[in-house]
Amino acid sequence: MTLDTAALRHLLGSPDAPHVVDVRTPAEFESVRIPGARNVPLDLLREHAAELRDRLDERTVLVCRSGARAEQAARTLADAGLPGLRVLSGGVAAWQADGAPVLTGRPRWDLERQVRLVAGSIVLTSVLASTIVPRAKWAAGAIGGGLTFAALSNTCAMGTALSKLPYNRGPRTGIADVRAALHATGG
Q: Deepest in the core among 28, 29, 49, 62, taking most CB within 10 A?
């Protein structure tokens, strides 16, 4: 179930405000976030879904940059026995575009931008290299195939790989940190 930014703003001002769980990488979360949101990176959420099921409830709203990873998190938690969680439509990008308040830290490139840079660089390099080594063009084809699969499956292997780089890790977030953060907000 999706929720638009106006509805989330209204809910956050209510006495029974929802828990906002941001499933982006710690580095993305550190750069810009919704006030009061707690960071539970998607890979950590997948690994500890059963435990998190017991700490979250139907008031929880899942967010990411655009909504895709939050949808994946909602499916993971539904499979773990917590169906019906809401996802912020358009994610933090829509939240910011709507002029809603955000907390900012050190600016970083989001994962989608990094994927475009790496994929574009590989395609450009392989096309240029194919003038000398004709078989190099197949690298461009492989990237095109990977991007097509990513769009059709709403997953991104390159984004997952890039999220593991030290630049994207930010402060280390472990399950103990998540437990403490959720406990502090009543989760």
A: 62
Which tokens is 73 given? 């998190």
Residue 93 and residue 34 share a domain:
yes
Element containing residue 88 per DSSP (H, E): strand 86-88
Number of domains in the chain: 2
Residues forming beta bridges with residue 87, ordered by sequence position: 2, 62
Cα-Cα-Cα-Cα dihedral sign, residues 100, 102, 107, 110: negative
For residue 112, give the amino acid letter. Answer: E
- The residue segments making up the domain with residue 91 are 2-108+170-184
Name the pTM for this structure.
Answer: 0.70
Cα-to-chain-centroid distance, residue 66: 8
Integer CA distances (angstroms), 77 to 12, 14, 29, 54, 66, in order:
22, 25, 20, 10, 19
CB within 8 A of 123, min separation 6: which ones? 139, 140, 143, 144
pLDDT in tens, 34-65: 999 999 999 889 999 988 888 888 899 999 99
